[in-house]
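Standup, Tuesday
Yesterday: got the pipeline producing structure tokens again.
Today: sanity-check two examples.
Blockers: none.

Example 1:
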Amino acid sequence: MGGSPDEKQQLTIFYNGRVATCDVTELQARSIISLARREMEDEKSKSSSGGSGSGSEPSSPVLMSSPIHNNSRTSSGGGLSMKRSLQSFLQKRKSRVQAISPYPINTRTS
């Protein structure tokens, strides 16, 4: 992040289908990333230990194929949702800018 350790910068987190934006210090950001990394490693170890009955070799391809299917499902369905969310955000931002602008903003072009 850079700067002094107490300097706050904006951090945007996408988690569980939601977007959160907050001001955090470098230490807080590193802690959040560390917790997320640990949670991902725990999930990976749980899924790999669940199918260990037939040996370690077959469980590896299963782990490789699961994220691919999940990512394709998420990207196809989540892309439209993200596009709508972005459009909504941009429209609201435009309205806020127009509301606080001291000059009238002409939206029509002749």
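Example 2:
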Amino acid sequence: MKISTQMQSQSLWMTTALLYSFLSLLTLSEAALSQGCTHPHKSPIDWRPKANESRIFSVGHDPKNPREIRVHVPPKYNESAVMLPLLLAFHDKDMSTAEMEYQSRLSDPAANDEFIVVYPTAKNNAWQSDISVRRWQKKEPQQKNVTDDVAFITQLLNDLDTIICFDDSRIHAVGMGTGAGMVHLMACDSQLSTRVASFATVAGGYGHPSKADHWAKCFPARLPIPIMSIHGDEDKVLPYLLNEWEPAKSRWSVPTWLEAWSEKNGCGEAIGDSQNAMDATGTAVTVTKLEGGGWMSEGEAFGGGTWRMAKSCPKPNSKDTYPTKKEEKEEIPLEVKSTDGEPNGGGGRKEEILTSNPADFTILHYRVHNYGHGWPTLQIKGSGPGKKVSRFFDATDLVLDWFKIHEMPIEWAGEKPKREDVADAKDKYSSKSEMKMETKEESITGEVKSEKETSLGEEKKNAEHARSENHSEL
């Protein structure tokens, strides 16, 4: 029996009981490859949205406490035999997945034509990392009303592995606000650090246990961990620096958090004299060697509207080898070129050019001047001598570009399977399974569809209002 057109249009929502019936309880080691590429018939429903469409599913292995995820797939998923990367996007406090999708534009085909995006929903409007409730340090079973979101995300990836075809070596995570704190916890987790290739945070809040070592609960099994950060220096919600009354609170300032990850990644302290140079984008930077064998570049970017810092930290040769301090491994990748583009000569003025590959960056940070709390997409006016040209700063493009140049190192990534044709896979769904979905949908679509129709418009209005407020701050 085939599902009617009406029932197909109503299949935006799936019940917990249905999804629970076919999501296998895999261990992380069993999910080395995306099984959705080679065994799509395991899914009894056609979960896929249409091109440039997002759908919401209820997920979780506890039918009494379901979790919602919003899923978006780009047109390439239906048109290409190439496996696509998977991106997990975590919303801020008091933000829905629809608002996160709208503000970040991660589902906008003009910005993203490649990434499958999954937007998980925080339980009770708070992630495990939420600073206000400080739940992330309370994992003991006796604690009530505590959600282990790290375990949830680990299981979610296992489940997605069975129903979506994606490149398992290109899983990435980005979070905004308190969602960025969730990304931090994922990077610290021994399992997820070997599953997620790279991480990015926007306007992030990063908590740590009070009166305890900052990294007492941070045990990534893979180092270094590539992390990108974007933060406005006028953020009043999660300030760039700690307020005077905040030391007693359980939060890092952004510079402290960046330095802590730098130390964790084995970057080492700056040594020797700094050198003035130009990077590949034409930005004037100061380049300094690091004692761990890497280097750091700093400078004003986007016409002086942001301060950018990049660190390239030494990479280990194997799972058992980690970078050590005070071990000089390579020189800063500088090349002398003239302003007419000729290397080591020519008629123009000679300059030092930083010729590094952005894929070598371990830490990349943008401090956006005069910007508040939010996801920055704005026109930056240059200031100072020679900086009158406006530049467009788009966090979405920067985040996606960061993910595009990173994938899981070969020693951690499994063999990539060839993708099976989507059309052939769809034919494998049994009519019995389709009938089951139709019955379930009849019992929930009336209530859920009504809620969707009335709420999505207001969520977009709220998101538009939030974006306009941040634009007005410049």
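Quick observation on example 2: The radius of gyration is 23 Å. The domain at 5-250+407-472 is CATH 3.40.50.1820 (Rossmann fold).
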